[in-house]
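Bench log, entry 3. Co-assembly request; chain sequences pasted below exactly as received.
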Amino acid sequence: MIIILRDSAKDEQVDELIDRLNKLDVKANLVEGVHQRIITLIGDTTKIDMDSVQAMEIVEQVKRVQEPYKKANRRFHPDDTVIDVKGRKLGGGTLNIIAGPCSVETEEQLITTAVAVKEAGATMLRGGAFKPRTSPYAFQGLGAEGIRLLIEARKITGLPIVTEIMDLKDIDLFADVDVIQVGARNMQNFTLLKELGHCDKPILLKRGLSSTLQELLMSAEYIMAGGNEKVILCERGIRTFEPKTRNTLDLSAVPLLKYHSHLPVVIDPSHATGIAALVEPMSLAAVASGCDALEIEVHRDPKNAWSDGAQSLTPEAFSKTMEKIKALAEFCGRPVDKN
Amino acid sequence: MIIILRDSAKDEQVDELIDRLNKLDVKANLVEGVHQRIITLIGDTTKIDMDSVQAMEIVEQVKRVQEPYKKANRRFHPDDTVIDVKGRKLGGGTLNIIAGPCSVETEEQLITTAVAVKEAGATMLRGGAFKPRTSPYAFQGLGAEGIRLLIEARKITGLPIVTEIMDLKDIDLFADVDVIQVGARNMQNFTLLKELGHCDKPILLKRGLSSTLQELLMSAEYIMAGGNEKVILCERGIRTFEPKTRNTLDLSAVPLLKYHSHLPVVIDPSHATGIAALVEPMSLAAVASGCDALEIEVHRDPKNAWSDGAQSLTPEAFSKTMEKIKALAEFCGRPVDKN
Amino acid sequence: MIIILRDSAKDEQVDELIDRLNKLDVKANLVEGVHQRIITLIGDTTKIDMDSVQAMEIVEQVKRVQEPYKKANRRFHPDDTVIDVKGRKLGGGTLNIIAGPCSVETEEQLITTAVAVKEAGATMLRGGAFKPRTSPYAFQGLGAEGIRLLIEARKITGLPIVTEIMDLKDIDLFADVDVIQVGARNMQNFTLLKELGHCDKPILLKRGLSSTLQELLMSAEYIMAGGNEKVILCERGIRTFEPKTRNTLDLSAVPLLKYHSHLPVVIDPSHATGIAALVEPMSLAAVASGCDALEIEVHRDPKNAWSDGAQSLTPEAFSKTMEKIKALAEFCGRPVDKN
Amino acid sequence: MIIILRDSAKDEQVDELIDRLNKLDVKANLVEGVHQRIITLIGDTTKIDMDSVQAMEIVEQVKRVQEPYKKANRRFHPDDTVIDVKGRKLGGGTLNIIAGPCSVETEEQLITTAVAVKEAGATMLRGGAFKPRTSPYAFQGLGAEGIRLLIEARKITGLPIVTEIMDLKDIDLFADVDVIQVGARNMQNFTLLKELGHCDKPILLKRGLSSTLQELLMSAEYIMAGGNEKVILCERGIRTFEPKTRNTLDLSAVPLLKYHSHLPVVIDPSHATGIAALVEPMSLAAVASGCDALEIEVHRDPKNAWSDGAQSLTPEAFSKTMEKIKALAEFCGRPVDKN
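Structure output for the full assembly:
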């Protein structure tokens, strides 16, 4: 941590600050220059509150040098974390494909789609039982019944299931789910994150619409700090001024997250773009950038989907896209995992 | 709602779409042009899912004309909503000042600050008992004990209390709170919003860091749809590329929210800027723009605050700022409410 | 400047770097810690290229501490710069109002509007002769004839004229203009800025749509480095994700620019919002925040304006708004300048 | 174009508006509904100024349906434009690689780098002679001498040269250049764009840091409207809130620009990320997304580069990256062009 002092800071004030800092298990050094004096802090600064230092009248600016996360930090855990989901290895050098409908609607819809995505090569099944919808008048998901249907679909296809939790009151319903997803809007629902830190299931954590990569890693740290180290990071588009896409897919997130962290990284091209025709090119780009998995929306009849139809592929389109993804993944040396 | 058709759409496909739409209680008209055909929909389109229309292969684009919110919409409720909080009238032509520490830390800290802000003219007391912190290693709030201390502070000062809920499991603890705040990170915690729709307390709803004003109004609609129409909207800064401030205060939100909605509007200059020195000029600007209330962080000793010290005013600074706010509010014809 | 070293940096590499830096007239200090080593640089770092330091394989990150601008920096020029424009004092404690049509269209249109804004209390006249339009098919301005008409309008009203230059090839046409405006799209047209550094007229420099405040100050520095210190900074809205306004007015820019620089600050609420109804509340907010001037679009017949009609006030609306601005400016102790 | 009327609009005002619109060579239809009346306009609305319609007091909102560009529009030019640059075919199904230093510094530096990138498989040489630098104190480019050196490098390597123009006063110096680049900061320098519309060289047009794809296409339209249809579009990162990268690479731009336009699309991963280590993964992702060319910065000694060292590859690193690019491009069916 670096503390830049104001010109007006008096020597005794500076000394007092240094004394105070030295008591916090860090080593504070004063560096004096012509136009500026700065204090450098070395040691474990994770617990120093930047804001209260910033609040001092003698302080012009505070800059953090060390990342404020530890368990998610590759610096302290150089090896890739590999998360086993019923035999699929997320982060282990293969490519996983999580596919399925945005929402679970009916048994027939889900099973048909699940069978189709399995057929096409998907390695896990996604489907929303609890749906975060911006309008209170829109379909809100089947809830417990949706989870029951997902489990049913798993029986038939053998695909592990991934589904979103919206509130910790529902956590018991997720007892038999394989991967619990935390949506973008809940990325900083810290109460939920803490609770998920106490369960032993993999958590697929989506980046918030305007969250920095560091904030995503801090949210992963919340879960990991509780003891659950099986966190999967997901980039699903960030909010920018460009109106042609729902969000802007930030693919640089793949190499950056892999540089700063050891956790597996998933790309969701469906939500990132909001446009079915962009799912294939963005999936291929994501594979080439080195991601560990893709999460893709597939609906048997997008124009009658109860949510997110515009970005869903039909099973036929998904099957064609999967052919390209499989070939590219093979070429890139990280073949699609077994399904 | 306007549906723009692709050039390739065949007449029978278009007819089929129009038939389908006409069954949904809206009136669909085809308008044919040289380069483009469009369908206009008139009626209550609130329940039509734009995404599934967008998913049709004959559809190029869908644009919404009518706002998707009703209860929060000034079009249907032309008069200002006035929310009574123990005699203070939010939205009734006066200016309310909600002041206090970011976090409740100790009894002594809270009471001292509460007495000081009351003295300076604040009309309500704020203080966080549950704190959403980006780091799991940061102070997370006193919880139930924090609420107990706020109630204590209300006894002494008579100021109604405003405090944030982070999860609906805690809702019983808020039984004796005057205004329940929903933080920016929870603006789209739809499960929480629905639950708050069933309580009878005023809800201070903060705009998410990258939420549009329409999304803020949709979140207000979630609460109102449940029956609780006492929603107070709060702009607290949005995320942009500018690094000098924590967020960018979007003051245009004041006249725009008041044009589109009848609900009261609060500005939080402390979180919006993250810099104590900007609180006064932005407070004055907010008053001049016509807001109904300000929410300002005050801490007796910002450099020792357990959270958000950098943006907190000392009681002395707050008192000086209040003198200017009071004079300006008086001048603008919306004097500070009684305290 | 702070250089954070990678864990892998070898001692001899670090020594070599320090030697190299010490040759650049700065003092480099190595600070060693448990997890991290950093080098602090003290002295005039303006000329050190952060990118080439960043390019070294032993460097993890480079952070600048000192601002890279000097002439625009309040640290080195504590007193406010006051710019005299035919007797109006920009930055001298009064409020200036620059008003007029977006584009100069006809003599009659310009003169009528000029007389009306003078009548209402405007202190300078604005009008575009060269118009930056996103479409090549839109009206591009009257060019030289537009400037002739502005000079004509000045003769009649006595108001100094402010008009935009788009390319330095036209600079001779601006010989008799009072203030040369550089538009947002040209804020980083460095060739133009350099040339303007050699003229002796005040330059009104608009912030780019996605420029940081530091970049705005660096562009001011370009002009000032050439010898012309009469730069007026203008905030006119930045680009964000919010679709209801054309741009988002960043009013925090007023106190921040005044803290970091000694130059006068203008707010343009017309372009910032793009909506005539928002001009009045945002003008009042800007005055309360402490700006030195407002730039407001006024058109005698907005619906027939050749550009930017949606954000222009009629002379009647402007006159009413001016009454409120005058009263508020008086109240705030910075009365509207003489006109 | 769709015009949404205010509730308060009187019938005679609506009739008058429709009459007026019908005179503009478009067909205006009134569609009446329960809560809203709208007017639909069909025909060539390119020349209707949305702003002046928006300015009418009876108008609530105006929405454009048809794109405001024609020559750049795939709707009217379904076939891909192929631009021949000394035998390389941009947009013709191959992949071009434009590589070289950010700035031309010395003859030796340029020639060494040019020979190295040719060797590695680059198909064109880039190098800046005129440099847009945010600081007036930074190296500004060699100017005419830089162009002379580029021509020299072309003689030796046979690679066509791409270099940036900053101001139209310099245009004669570009007479012997193969591709003229317009930088992000000049994307809306309309005077320059118009002039380039009268030359017969290919123009590589970079997207502005906060420009929408539609604005990029409108700027292409400026050049094409003047008669020069050889425009190459370039995505080079947009500005967002994420601080880890210089900009955010928006790869969705590739399929979207190719859907809306027939012009070739280039990706610049060096400027988009600002980090050398991200250039390879983002280049591969760009190839997989279907781009026509990559523009990559290569510097023989990045840590001593006079500009943009942090994002430049060494010739060795470039050569390794090229191996992967060549293999992937071959695999994707769009092999690297001849060099």
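The domain at 2-63 of chain C is CATH 3.30.70.1140 (Alpha-Beta Plaits). Chain C touches chain B at residues 210, 212-214, 238, 240-245, 248-252, 254-256, 259, 272-273, 277-278, 281-282, 284-290, 327-328, 331-332 (CB under 8 Å).
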